[in-house]
Amino acid sequence: MTVTLQRMPQKRTYLMCPPEFYAVDYAINPWMDTSTPVDTELALKQWERLRETLTGLGHTVHVLPAEPGLPDMVYAANGAFTVDGVAYGARFKYAQRTAEAAAHRAYLAARGWTCVPAAETNEGEGDFAYLPEAYGGLILAGYGFRTEPVAHVEAQDVLGRPVVSLHLVDPRFYHLDTALAALDDSTVAYYPAAFSEASQRVLRQLFPDAVRADDADAYAFGLNLVSDGRHVVLNSEATGMAHKVEAAGYTPVLVELSELKKGGGSIKCCVAELR
Fold it and tell me: Among 95, 118, 176, 261, which one has the highest count of C-beta atoms within 10 angstroms of its own C-beta?
């Protein structure tokens, strides 16, 4: 059934980092294949198209300068998690990405953010999603591959919001943002098979009206999306997911990001929200 209600967009502020030094020189997730060539010029064009799409929808996009030696820095969502002017910093699992956390912290601190470095391993907004209107303000937090469960406790203390822990069980969906997305301030879409049975029960209880993705949606990175409450920016491969969000009353906006998918990320991985 197609939903006819009018979804209202909200102006958002985002942070992105250009893929100037992007490469797949190592493999730290199942999508990365060091034998597959990466076209950096095409990656830059696709990234720029994503940035233009977001600004064209009326959002503000700040740009974090890329740094040599950090090929995954383009995945800007992983560097921190922000709520109400407070940035809970990342502490990456893999040494190849460790220096990204300091770059994000320095950028945000210079612009007036209260930055709290993490004592526990977490990968920023890659494993945290915020729903300000769900249950008075709720953080959903993933664990199982990158972020440690103890970081959920730390995030709750730092940000002053209740945190619900969700157990990821499929290594292809190693970050929460590959398996779950906020469609607006109280609604989510998710791929049930990426989560443990217990976490699936929690999600069904919390979000009975969620948009549920299937295998094809998830493998096309269809959950790795950015939404302003009306416009849902999706990987162009995720046509099935586009139909599902459209049926739920949202407006899908497709952007090709094939080169960035080679590193195990898509739309959301490239976009951090600054709240």
Answer: 176
